[in-house]
Write a structure and sequence with these properties.
With 438 residues, the chain is α/β, with parallel strands linked by helices. Helices cover 35% and strands 15% of the residues. The structure holds D-glucarate (GKR) and magnesium ion.
């Protein structure tokens, strides 16, 4: 089997005005759909980060990939791997403290590798007639659990001009409206765990929001809050003290402040008060070299991986083993994505024996209009995505939809995610990302 063609399809998908400490989501999120076409007529697919830079990085490997055997992934890894994920960087340059995922040049090689790896595994799965998660020694579970990922947001459903989209949730900038958003997520998808994106409003309001979620849904729904480093060490401690009950019992505090050293200090101070709230991270821990460091400092107890930039599905499975050996929990980070990524995450989660919390997904924030998977949106059962009884990823592309996504991509005026610029354009002309904000 040889790859005879690599096809790259940039996509723009409508996205609502969601808020985070990075700023405001633009009316479109950017993705890239990848196809590898083999000499035996099989087409393997994957989805990765979008915009100019991730696309250029994929273009740069075209010459190597065309002519490669999809089974030769280790050699491809050796070819591409620059060793950056093996180096502990004390400056935090590889973290997502300042750069949103997909924009950090330091994870370019693992990100690019992952996009090709998943497409190759999809092709191999089709060739041998097996679902992708069964290729690497069999699955640990049949369905991947996901959480309700709630966002404070302004009114609007995303899109521009004639392509402006319906707003299913309206403005959500208060505890009450977030509870309502959550109610709709749970009734539509059946999620059993809840995550609130924080770092947007005054911490007192975010504390009230978590309390409102607890009182609306009860302790059987674990709660997590993720302010993406918006808080100082002191504020993180105060929030940890205030939410000692609400974040216990399967919940966690995610990246409250910058840097592993900061999180380690918050953890020490909370433990001294008898509070053993777990800390999770996708900002401070983005690659294998960060894991032992995070464990040694006791800064992070749950690693939030992401097959899109940790190096694909096999790396995710290796990470699962590593976390288990080191006594760490594991869950999954997400960014706006389509169904191909959702299936990638589901296969990665099902291939990982050690997965301790439901994974994040932005999928509810996207709609049928932009979905490129044949047959439309992927269905959830009780908050989980079941692995279909079909080979590879189990999904095919709808080429008309794909072409519409490419057209949208070329029409829109930006080719890079810039939440800070969006904030200045729509919310506050003087807005700047300041860390810590509180
Ligand atoms: O979608 O705004 C967002 C999130 O803030 C995203 O960019 C983060 O990478 O979901 C992510 C997280 O958990 O930090
Ligand atoms: Mg996070």
């Amino acid at each position: 089997m040889t790859i005879k063609e690599l096809r790259l399809h940039p996509q723009a998908i409508a996205d609502g005005p969601l808020r985070s400490s990075y700023g405001l989501h633009a009316p479109y999120a950017l993705r890239t759909i990848v196809e590898v076409v083999t000499t035996d007529g099989i087409t393997g697919i994957s989805e990765t980060y979008g915009g100019e830079k991730p696309l250029a990085a994929l273009e740069a490997v075209r010459q190597y990939v065309v002519g490669m055997n999809p089974f030769d992934l280790t050699r491809f890894w050796q070819h591409l791997h620059d060793g950056a994920d093996r180096v502990v960087d004390p400056s935090g340059a590889r973290s997502q403290t300042m750069l949103v995922p997909g924009e950090n040049p330091l994870d370019e090689s693992t990100r690019t590798f992952a996009a090709i790896e998943v497409a190759c595994l999809d092709a191999i799965g089709q060739a041998v007639g097996k679902p992708l998660c069964d290729l690497t020694g069999g699955r640990a579970r049949d369905a991947a659990p996901f959480s309700a990922y709630l966002f404070y947001k302004h009114a609007g459903g995303g899109g521009l001009g004639e392509d402006t989209r319906e707003d299913k949730y309206g403005e959500c900038l208060s505890p009450e409206t977030i509870v309502e958003q959550c109610r709709r997520f749970i009734s539509e998808y059946g999620f059993a765990e809840i995550k609130l994106k924080g770092g947007v409003l005054d911490p007192e309001i975010e504390i009230d929001t978590i309390r409102a979620l607890r009182s609306a849904f009860g302790p059987s729904f674990p709660l997590r809050i993720d302010p993406n480093c918006a808080w100082s060490v002191e504020t993180s401690v105060q929030v940890g003290l205030a939410l000692r009950e609400e974040l216990s019992g399967g919940g966690y505090l995610e990246d409250p402040c910058s840097a592993l050293t900061g999180m380690a200090e918050v953890r020490r101070r909370l433990l001294a008060e008898g509070i053993s709230t777990l800390f999770a991270s996708n900002v401070a821990t983005t690659c294998f070299a960060h894991v032992p460091q995070a464990r040694d400092l006791d800064a992070v107890q749950i690693i939030l991986s992401d097959p899109h930039y940790w190096g694909g599905i096999r790396k995710q499975k290796q990470l699962s083993e590593l976390c288990e050996v080191l006594g760490l929990g594991l869950s999954m980070h997400s960014n706006n994505h389509l169904g191909v990524s959702l299936m990638t995450m589901a296969h990665a989660a099902c291939a990982s024996p050690h997965l301790t919390h439901a994974c994040d997904t932005h999928y509810p924030w996207q709609t049928e209009i932009d979905e490129v998977v044949e047959g439309g949106r992927i269905h959830f059962t009780n908050g989980a995505v079941p692995i279909p009884d079909r080979p590879g990823l189990g999904v095919k592309l709808d080429y008309d939809q794909l072409a519409r996504g490419v057209e949208r991509y070329h029409k829109i005026p930006f080719k890079k995610r810039d939440d800070e610029a969006e904030m200045r354009k729509h919310v506050d002309p003087n807005w700047k990302r300041v860390l810590p904000r509180w």
